[in-house]
Amino acid sequence: MKIQIALDLTDLLKAVHMARDLCAAGADLLEAGTPLIKTFGVGSVALLKSACPSAEVVADLKTADVGALEAELAKAAGADWATVMAATNVETIEEFARRGKELGLKTALDTIGVASPYDRVREVLDRVTLDMVILHLGIDVQRRRGLTVDQLIAEALRIKHLGVSVAVAGGIGQKELEKIAGTEIDVVIIGRAITSAPSPREAFLLLKSIITK
């Protein structure tokens, strides 16, 4: 299990300094969050990669159209991973994954906004080979539907049993991570619990200790 640190920031200098500090603490997955990319473009991916060359960098593009082009943009910027929306048409997902594979870019399917993630992932996997699926439920959705962390884990593992690696995202902090640790989930995506902490480095080290016990 790995922690992917979502740098959902709009301050580029802060993001680069944080990436460098987290890299020194042993971070191996850094995400150029959608707000960062929308504010500063895909060039922000290259800056994070330069700040932490030992980590894999995820370009959270949330691609919804022109899949092949966006895969090319992510790879050209130095990304190791990029994301495509499960809610978009399957042709875009196919083009994104196909071009990503040609370029050596790993592709992750983000299920945010999808009413039935398991059914949609199963449908997509019938046509597309992906490297990972992100079970991504916003905090508002979790609260409105009364979903528990245990239910989130169970749904992620159902998806994993379709034969694909899985990540979970959505308001995860120490309490949630303690339940996720030790399961077959491959990646836990954590943003504010690290980036908004007084010391992001110390917050990351604490959370990492939970999954490495």
From TrEMBL:
Q: Does the keyword Lyase apply?
A: yes
Q: What keywords tag this UniProt record? A: Carbohydrate metabolism, Lyase
Q: Tell me the GO BP annotations in alphabetical order.
A: 'de novo' pyrimidine nucleobase biosynthetic process; L-ascorbic acid catabolic process
UniProt keyword Lyase present: yes
Coiled-coil spans are none
One function term, GO molecular function aspect:
3-dehydro-L-gulonate-6-phosphate decarboxylase activity
Q: Where is the signal peptide?
A: none
Give residue ranges for domain Orotidine 5'-phosphate decarboxylase.
2-207
Name the PANTHER family on file.
3-KETO-L-GULONATE-6-PHOSPHATE DECARBOXYLASE SGBH-RELATED
Task: State the protein's name.
Answer: 3-hexulose-6-phosphate synthase
**Which species is this UniProt entry from?**
Thermoproteus uzoniensis (strain 768-20)
